[in-house]
Amino acid sequence: TVSASSSLPTANADTCLSLENVSISYGGFEAVRNVYCDIPRGKVTAVIGPSGCGKSTVLRALNRMNDLIDDCSLTGRVVFDGADLYQPNVDPVEVRRRIGMVFQHFNLFPHMTALGNCMEAPMHVLGMSRTEALARSEELLEMVGLADKIHEHPARLSGGQQQRVAIARALAMRPKILLFDEVTSALDPEVIGEVLNVIRSLASEHSLTMLMVTHQMGFAREISDRICFFYEGKIAEEGAPQQIFENPQNERTRQFISAVLDAN
Question: Collapsing DSSP states into helix, strand and coil, what is residue 157?
């Protein structure tokens, strides 16, 4: 296994990742403004809020995905395990190796089987042997309930099955934190539950730090240790699920939660 880059030292603090006065702009549009946030190690943090409020923009910035977007700029500090991820000496590939991400639209390699999708990055990025990558990928695909689908290509899998492969693929890289970007929003209603069950299992049985942007309010309330409510590019309120859902302090939070509850 390839060792971690010296540009990303490991810290022992309770905080896994911090945003310090982070603003993100696309051209002249400021999508995220002056965000401060600490992501606790080994906990589940959910990010909720109306569409277009900056939730996914922040998530993508955490593993340097915004580097791939033209005219995108970030100010402030994103600190992960004690290192600022946006310092010139930090390799974005190394960032993405340690900060895993599961996308809304799966992004699986269509020409590879479920097993091949999980094995590719550990072998070519981590330097893992084929034997080790095979064993780990089989174990993870079994963990997400796909032991009987390891040799199937994505086109022969349902949306829920593809998303579970994507989760297994992210876990195969042994990330320090796993990001979920609205992972159920592209799924048919009948298969959302199978993906949520996998995430629920990860939260209850493993000490994995998770940060998820979601519109599944009931799930966010059930699984999260902490919730951040985004509004117009800022965190309007954050706290324990019980506080956010039962006694929100911010008027925008109250309006959002009320609308969500009324819709259900």
Answer: coil
What are the C-alpha distances in Å from 7 to residues 86, 174, 238? Answer: 11, 18, 31
Nearest to 211 by CA among 107, 99, 97, 118: 99
Q: How far is CA 199 from CA 72, 77, 184, in A?
A: 31, 29, 11
Using DSSP bridges, classify how beta strands 99-102 and 44-48 pair: parallel, antiparallel or unpaired: unpaired
- Cα→Cα distances 67→15, 58, 64, 119, 202, Å: 24, 13, 6, 25, 29
pTM for this entry: 0.89
Per-residue pLDDT tens digits for 150-165: 999 999 999 999 999 9
Instruction: Estimate to the nearest angstrom the gap between the alpha carbon of 260 and the chain centroid.
Output: 23
Note whether 22 and 32 are within 8 A (CB).
yes
> In which region does residue 104 sit, left (phi positive, over 0), alpha (psi from -120 to 50) or beta (all else)?
alpha
Contact 42, 89 (CB under 8 A): no
Return contacts of 257-261, CB within 8 angstroms, 24+ apart. 260/217
